[in-house]
Amino acid sequence: MSTLSLEVATPLGLQFQTEATEVELPSVSGEFGVLPGHVPVLASLRAGVLRYESGGKVHVVAVGAGFTEADSTRVRVLTDVFALPEDIDRAETEAELKDATKALAAFGDYHSGHAYEELQRAVDWAQARLDAIA
Hints:
Largest sheet: 5 strands, mixed
Helix content: 25-40%
Distance between the termini: 30 Å
């Protein structure tokens, strides 16, 4: 059976690498899948859960916003943050989500600016990590 090389890199370097028979990614336009033989694609990613199948099992990791480049043999993910489920502390992440959501609500109807966008990214990243351990 053909496989894909899956790589996840952050500004700190290569964080994750494995072989997979299928990869599902959270793009800004919705989730999409990549199988061996896929046509080349470049897509923007939103924070969410990256799913991949390896050894007959589905695995998940949390990824932040970024980009992916995929072709017939490889999926490369470039993101600002990445987490394996076993490295995620549920209580800590729930507290981060609560704090960021509360701070975001304080903006009321004013939904723009750098501070608002950073808080929204914090909410999205916390939710992605919780979804990865659900």
